[in-house]
């Protein structure tokens, strides 16, 4: 019988639409600069050489509707609305044509970012972890199973702060499509049930402060809300 020095942390889970079952989170992958206009606003050049990624801890996952504190160590806390892909089957070194077979469903998410710390890390050539892997920094709506939604196409992705729209685009504007991202990521990782892929954010990212209310979503998938205190 295994004994522990202290009780293991409970595994994070996400609500599934119209189900009493919950989706247990294994890993969180995030695609960087996957919309051309956002790449430009971040000072980069959009390109299709290869996608790149960063990760967040599973325990950064926080449900839509939450109230979270303004995080320590930053004076420039940014929102990024994203389509989230929930993986429900295992796969490795996949062809693009088989990639979508791994998808359990889709959700809307927020990749919250300490932008000032990210900018400082970029200037010094350092990792982004302290800027991206934030407690309560991976907000997610309930997951809508693909059997219900199909695979979203040409869907509006949007975000508003205090009812003022800041981000407004289509998921078809992604440089790397969902099947391309899944196939590419599977060259480096054995993808497995419980993995989440935050697929990138469109232009219009910006700061939030204590007291702000964020709303947003992907049409046909889900909406989300977040309160900053």
From TrEMBL:
It comes from the Bacteria. The keyword Iron-sulfur does not apply. The keyword Metal-binding applies. Keywords: Metal-binding. GO terms for molecular function: acetylpyruvate hydrolase activity; metal ion binding. Residues 28-227 form the Fumarylacetoacetase-like C-terminal domain. It holds the Pfam family FAA_hydrolase. This is Fumarylacetoacetase. It comes from Woeseia oceani.
């Amino acid at each position: 019988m295994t004994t522990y020095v202290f009780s293991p942390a409970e595994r994070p889970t996400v609500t599934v639409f119209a189900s009493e079952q919950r989706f247990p989170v294994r890993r969180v992958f995030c695609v960087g600069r996957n919309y051309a206009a956002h790449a430009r606003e971040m000072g980069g050049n959009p390109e299709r050489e290869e996608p790149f990624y960063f990760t967040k801890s599973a325990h950064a996952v926080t449900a839509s509707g939450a109230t979270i504190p303004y995080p320590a160590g930053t004076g420039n806390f940014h929102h990024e609305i994203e389509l989230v892909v929930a993986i429900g089957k295992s796969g490795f070194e996949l062809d693009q044509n088989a990639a979508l077979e791994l998808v359990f469903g889709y959700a809307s998410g927020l990749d919250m970012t300490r932008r000032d710390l990210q900018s400082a890390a970029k200037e010094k050539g350092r990792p982004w972890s302290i800027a991206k892997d934030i407690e309560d920094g991976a907000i997610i709506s309930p997951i809508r199973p693909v059997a219900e939604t199909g695979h979203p196409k040409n869907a509006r992705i949007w975000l508003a702060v205090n009812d003022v729209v800041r981000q407004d685009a289509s998921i078809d504007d992604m440089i790397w499509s969902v099947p391309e991202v899944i196939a590419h990521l599977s060259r480096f990782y054995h993808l497995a049930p419980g993995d989440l892929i935050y697929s990138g954010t469109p232009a219009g990212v910006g700061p939030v402060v204590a007291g702000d209310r964020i709303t947003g979503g992907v049409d046909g998938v889900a909406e989300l809300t977040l309160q900053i205190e």
